[in-house]
Design brief:
The chain is of the alpha+beta class. It is built from 18 helices and 22 strands. It has a nine-stranded mixed sheet with strand order 14-13-15-16-12-17-18-19-20. The radius of gyration is 31 Å and the shape is globular.
Length: about 600
Amino acid sequence: MTIDELKQQRRWVLWRLETVGGKQTKVPYRPDGRKAMANNPGTWHTYAECAAIASQFSGVGLVLGQGVWGVDIDGCCDAVSGKFTPESREIVIRLDSYSEFSPSGTGCHVLGLGELPGPGLKKPHSGCKAVEVKADGYYFTFTGRHLSKTPAALMDRQEQVLALYDRVSKLANPRKTDGLQVSIPLSEEERFRKLMAGDMSDYNGDHSMADFALCILLAKKHGCNAFKIDAEFRNSGLYREKWEREDYRENTITRAATAVAKEAPIFFDVPCEDPMDEDAPTTWIVQPLPGREEGWFPCGEVSLIGGPSGAGKTHALLRMAEGARRRADVFGHRTTASEYCILLHDRSTASMRRTCNAAKLPLDEVMSRVIRLTQTQQRARPAEVVEAAIQTRHSVTLWVLEGLDFWTPKIGDIEAVGSVMDELQRVAKQYRVAIVGTLGSPKQKENDRYASGRDQFMGSVAFGRKSETCISISRTTDKAVRQMDVMTRNTGDEVFFFTWTDAGLTLTTEPKADKPAESDSAFSRMTVAVRVKFGSGEPIQFLPSLGAKATFHRWQAWAFDNGLIHKYKGRWYLIPQEIGATVTEETTLN
């Protein structure tokens, strides 16, 4: 049964998160505002009837039963990375039916066709908070955030759901034994036996990953006693020569014991396909150059492009986005064929049209991919809006957020900025899309350059720390030329210079700095001040009394070009006036 076919049935309700009896509860409602009941078909509606007013509630829910079962795996994945635990991954893969993320992003629902042999179950389960197997008399929230590597439709999985039902029901009745015993849940007990036997099949043959998994179980069994963990591990089928490496052995045991002691959820890095794993090869919108490991704008990550207003951020970004759409080379790089969409926060559509025309790009093609945010959307969290937009344009892999700094509350608060970036990161990983935000910077003075470096992105270091590709656009000494610095995580920076011609944005060379005239008052005054402060043979260094530090360094370059100073063993010295250029008192005072 397809999701569209399911939506035609009268089995849908609305829900709102409310406090009932001191506990947060998802209360079902009808479209008319009256409460619905999961066991009363007269209170159910079609999906379209509910979706029409879903914005007035917390979301839409699907009533189970009548041949449809649901499995809720609570607390099974990380909301930021989207990574699943091995136990929950196993459940999803075995059921092999339509699966989606829960509203929180930390759990998932699996929906399928079949009948349960008894009432609904909800039991604690290893690798997650709990597993629910339910049908008649229950409803599940429905998000539509499909786990892309699971079937897109509800499949007939009667045998599989019966096996899971039986397995979960047994967890409610642990075996009773005499004497002191260590209790390990059934699935962990099975894993324990396999790992002790040296079976790494649940970890795709990754020996180090299997070592860590066994140490987790041994830490639970032996109360985090490192000596007992080590002793029993040596009797397992996983033992090998590498275990004798003190650094490897102690690190593995310490990580496992720390996690168990803190009762932290353990997320095993088991290779699998998207979105239940992030170890697949990285897709770059702008591909790496030959010999380099990293390209620009990786899918599943957040990147940034910053610079002052009017520097050319949007021009450069549009060139890259359009190049990727047409799979054309940009800035000397090959691109991955990618559809894009631009969410405008700080600009009007008319402004974007003017930019598009100035960049000599196809107006209709670009503007069909531009969405001007409403005031309501501008007040919402960026991740919420991006996620909603993704639901309407599933083919888009590059999402551009124009004016992310305007969209971020408390721009100078590292925690507030970090929270926004973390939420965007979760969306990027969950949907395997590249998110690129643009940021403004303080207005530059003429000939000033935007400070490069990912930690100096505007407002907060959290922007640079929590992003992948960082690009800064700055002005140069030539008003018509811009400098573009591309900073990746693990490879060297790339620097480009571009200008505008009849063909639009065009690469050029670095402009030569104009040498200010010797009579220039700022440089002349600096020359006099330096000669007063430093005598012949005394190394020159910046002092606050000389004026602005930036002016001093510009003067230093100018003075060297004009033969006023020279460098010896890493230090600068004045050249005697009778040898170098002469600066008269009359000239310096003009």
